[in-house]
C-alpha cells in the first residue's frame, strides 16, 4: 500500500501566506541519485511594504548564518560560488516572482546536507529563512515489502525512487521477479511536500518456496550509464507440515529406540512428542528426536508428534 495524498498541502500553505511576511516554503527533505540532478522547489515571501527595486537571493550550504561563512551554493549578486558548487548550481526560479527553485547537477555524496535560502532586498532587508531542505544523495532504489508476508496471501511490493531531476528521469525494472507476476508501473507521483517519486508495483501470491527469494529493483537513466540496484529478501511465513516421521516401529525388548519427527515452517515450528495425552518432549525446532532407553512392553502404544 502506498500512501501519497493527492492534496498538495505545500501549495495551500503558500496561498494562505500571501500578503507578506518573511517566510519560505520548500520540502523539508528531498532525495536524488548520485550523478543525476535535483530541483529543489522553493518559494519565499516578504512584507509587501518593502517594495524592493530588485530581489536578490543566496543559497547557503549547511548553515543559515552568513557570519559562519557557509559555502555559497548560489548568489544572484555576484555569481561567485563555493568551489564544490561550481558549474553545478543554477537558479530555476525567478526571484522577482518570489520563486527560489534551485537546480543542482552532477550530484556527488558530499553535496548531501542542508540548503538554506536567504532573501536579499538590499540594505538591512536581508533574511535567512529557517525553513530548509535536507538533500539526501542515494544510490539504491527503495524496495518496500509489507511487514508480514504470508504464503497464499497476495502481497504488494513496491519500488520507489526519487524523480526530482527534470533532465534525467528514472526508469524502473524488476530483477528476479520471474514467476512472481507482472509489474505495474504507477508512474510519477507527487508527495505531500511537492517532491516526486517514480513507483512500480509488483503484486503476487507468495508460495512457501519463495521464502528467502531475492527480489531486486533497478533504476536506470536512459542515454546515460547511470544504473542503480536495490534488493530485498522475502521472508514468507508458512504453516508447518511434517516432512519426516517414523510410521510404525517394531522394537526388541530392552533395546534403544529413537523416533524422529521433522517439520518445515517459517518461523520454525514447536514440535511435541506425546503419548496418551502426556507430553514427553517439546522444542522449537525443525527436527526432534524422542529417545526411549531399554524399551519394555509397557512403552507399547501410539506416539504422536504434534504441531501447534
Ligand atoms: C518556480 O519556478 C520553477 C522553475 O521555473 C517552476 O517549475 C515552478 O512552477 C515555479 N513555481 C511556482 C509556484 O510558480
Ligand atoms: C536518448 O537519445 C535518443 C537519441 O539521441 C533520443 O531520441 C531520445 O529521446 C533520448 N531519450 C531520452 C529519455 O532522453
Ligand atoms: C526413525 O527415523 C529416523 C530417521 O529416518 C531414524 O534415524 C530412526 O532410526 C528411526 N527409528 C526407528 C526405531 O526405526
TrEMBL record:
Membrane topology, as annotated: Single-pass type I membrane protein
Location (main, coarse): membrane
Domain Ig-like: 239-308
GO cellular component assignments: plasma membrane
Subcellular location: Membrane
Keywords: Cell adhesion, Disulfide bond, Lectin, Membrane, Signal, Transmembrane, Transmembrane helix
UniProt cross-references to InterPro entries, sorted A to Z: CD80_C2-set, Ig-like_dom, Ig-like_dom_sf, Ig-like_fold, Ig_sub, Ig_sub2, SIGLEC
Signal peptide coordinates: 1-19
Keyword Disulfide bond attributed: yes
GO process terms (BP): cell adhesion
GO molecular function: carbohydrate binding; sialic acid binding
Pfam families recorded: C2-set_2, Ig_3
Transmembrane segments annotated in the record for this chain: none
Similarity remark: Belongs to the immunoglobulin superfamily. SIGLEC (sialic acid binding Ig-like lectin) family.
Protein name, UniProt field: Myelin associated glycoprotein
Amino acid at each position: 500500500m502506498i500512501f501519497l495524498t493527492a492534496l498538495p498541502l505545500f501549495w495551500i500553505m503558500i496561498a494562505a501566506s500571501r500578503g507578506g511576511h518573511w517566510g519560505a516554503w520548500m520540502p523539508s527533505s528531498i532525495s536524488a541519485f548520485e550523478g543525476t540532478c535535483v530541483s529543489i522547489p522553493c518559494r519565499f515571501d516578504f512584507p509587501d511594504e518593502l517594495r524592493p527595486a530588485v530581489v536578490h537571493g543566496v543559497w547557503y550550504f549547511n548553515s543559515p548564518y552568513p557570519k559562519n561563512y557557509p559555502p555559497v551554493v548560489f548568489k544572484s549578486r555576484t555569481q561567485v560560488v563555493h568551489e564544490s558548487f561550481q558549474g553545478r548550481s543554477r537558479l530555476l526560479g525567478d526571484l522577482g516572482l518570489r520563486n527560489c527553485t534551485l537546480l543542482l547537477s552532477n550530484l556527488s555524496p558530499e553535496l548531501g546536507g542542508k540548503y538554506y535560502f536567504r532573501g536579499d532586498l538590499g540594505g538591512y532587508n536581508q533574511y535567512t529563512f529557517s525553513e530548509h531542505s535536507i538533500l539526501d544523495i542515494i544510490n539504491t532504489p527503495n524496495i518496500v515489502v509489507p511487514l508480514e508476508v504470508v504464503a497464499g496471501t497476495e502481497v504488494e511490493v513496491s519500488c520507489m525512487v526519487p524523480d526530482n531531476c527534470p533532465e534525467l528521469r528514472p526508469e524502473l525494472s524488476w530483477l528476479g521477479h520471474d514467476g512472481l507476476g507482472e509489474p505495474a508501473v504507477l508512474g510519477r507521483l507527487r508527495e505531500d511536500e511537492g517532491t516526486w517519486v517514480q513507483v512500480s508495483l509488483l503484486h503476487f501470491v507468495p508460495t512457501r518456496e519463495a521464502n528467502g527469494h531475492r527480489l531486486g529493483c533497478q533504476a536506470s537513466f536512459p542515454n546515460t550509464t547511470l544504473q542503480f540496484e536495490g534488493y530485498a529478501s522475502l521472508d514468507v511465513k508458512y504453516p508447518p507440515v511434517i516432512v519426516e516421521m517414523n510410521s510404525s516401529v517394531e522394537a526388541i525388548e530392552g533395546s534403544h529406540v529413537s523416533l524422529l519427527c521433522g517439520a518445515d515452517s517459517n518461523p520454525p515450528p514447536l514440535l511435541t512428542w506425546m503419548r496418551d495425552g502426556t507430553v514427553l518432549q517439546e522444542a522449537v525446532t525443525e527436527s526432534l528426536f524422542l529417545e526411549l532407553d531399554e524399551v519394555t512392553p509397557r512403552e507399547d502404544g501410539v506416539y504422536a508428534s504434534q504441531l501447534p
